[in-house]
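Field reference: "sequence" (input) and "structure" (output). Example, Manganese transport system ATP-binding protein:
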Amino acid sequence: MNQTSLNPTEPAIVVDRLSVHYGDVTALDSVSVTVNRGQICGLIGVNGSGKSTLFKCLMGLVNAQQGSLALFGRSSTAARKGRLVAYVPQSEDVDWNFPVSVGDVVLMGRYAHMGPLRHPSRADRAAVDHALERVGLTGLRNRPIGELSGGQKKRTFVARGIAQEAQLLLLDEPFAGVDKVSEATIVELLHDLKGEGRTVLVSTHDLAGLPQLCDSAILLHQRILAEGTPAKVLTHENLARAFGPGSPPVPAATPSATPIAPGA
């Protein structure tokens, strides 16, 4: 399955009244969200607001008690099997001691393209080479993943999504603990991927950088508090509702993210 087989009018993400409870704790309370194709959408909120739970629901890793969701009009299971979605988890969700190299991690993104014996073809290896080049990690392909810096680890997982040829990338706090070079590389990559028609949902605490990064934003605190353009979401009133009296300042007005043509 590739992008040309998708209905171009179908949103990348549709979440309808989704609720998730962990025992007596409510993680998501009747959340409804739509993210259109070819956008970078920022997901913001305090720690524990339900951002990671929403990502895991989209990936089929957590089951909701109520509501429904669809990715390109398909269930999360069908979207994963169709190689449509890739996930970059938070660092604490990954076993960095597992003995695997950077190249091996990126190659995992090609598994669905391979036969049952998982024997990589020339096309698979070329896709890995291309992905590593795009994230600037070609020289580290044989390095154990656990020896990388925080930013290099994030870039490795982004490369895995690129090699997979996913049309939707879910990035959970990709800028947490990363160096400025990696942050700039990831931001540039996300704009490039958007220019290629892919969709990105990214959670971030960097409110100041949100207008330059994203076309739209979602403010989450178990419920959707606000959604729309970054300028519409990042108001004093909305941030106070989400973050309380010590809410961060509203970022200075800046132009929103602009499309980048494929190959630019």
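The first helix runs from residue 51 to 58.
Strands lie at 13-22, 25-35, 40-44, 66-71, 85-88, 168-172, 199-203, 216-221, 223-228.
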